[in-house]
Write a structure and sequence with these properties.
The protein has a single domain (19-111), classed as EF-hand (Recoverin, domain 1), CATH 1.10.238.10. It has a two-stranded antiparallel sheet with strand order 1-2. It has helices spanning 13-36, 46-52, 63-73, 83-92, 95-99, 101-111; strands at residues 2-4, 7-9. By secondary structure, it is mainly α. It contains six helices and two strands; from the N terminus they run E-E-H-H-H-H-H-H.
Length: 112
Amino acid sequence: MASQNGVVFEDFFPAMVEKLGADGFMKELCNGFQLLVDGDKGVITFESLKRNSALLGLQDMSDEEAVCMLREGDLDGDGALNEMEFCTLMLRLSPELMNSSRKLLVEAIVNF
């Protein structure tokens, strides 16, 4: 369990991958994206993140933490997270998954 800026994050992702497999895990990440997305814009915005964060147990997320999350994951500079950016950010938040990402990539390719 790690604490950064007051947010406590426990890395359950490796256990999820083990249980669901790479494909199932990626589907779960996509489901998480759908919980946070702005339905009109098709991306996670600051407003949609703040409005829907309680669905993921992050109801105490500060505005600053939400902005930092968006900034950290925003690869194309549009100020929001598309599905690929969200999934990439979630994987980057899991040190153990980053270490075993080659295995996940191979498994995802084989199952594709």
